[in-house]
Amino acid sequence: MKSGLLERLVCDVCGGKLEAAATPELTCHSCGRQVALHPGDGSQQIPIFTPPPQGLQPSTKLARGRDLGTPWRRANWRFLEAEASRLSPQAALLDVGAGRGDFAEIFAGKNYFALDLYPYPEVHLVCDLAQSNPLRLASFDAILLMNVLEH
Hints:
Elements: E1 18-20, E2 25-28, E3 34-38, E4 46-48, H1 71-85, E5 92-96, E6 111-116, E7 125-126, E8 142-144
Parallel strand pairs: 5-6, 5-8, 6-7
Antiparallel strand pairs: 1-2, 2-3, 3-4
């Protein structure tokens, strides 16, 4: 699991403290809730709070960058670079709907966490926030929702 993630999570059932278990799951010692850990890419496990939607076709990773894509995408990238430069290196950032991590490069060197509905290799946490909220209050300094609300 990505370093620093566990202390930003709480049990989505009772709000209790989650702890890593000897088995591939997180356990709430208050209510017993168990959260599965997806093996991810092998280097870190991904907590799965809600199952991925049935029939979801995961996207393929596309090349993204400052000088790639439509004029809108290039302007979007530059906007995010400017905003990222204003964050302190210690700032915790949650990228909701991160998908394949299109913008993760911009936040390199920051305390960046990626959340999505699907356990893409680039994601640190899988959760549908409309169904469950395992996020500790005030545990992030900034929340990013790029190309999310229109979907």
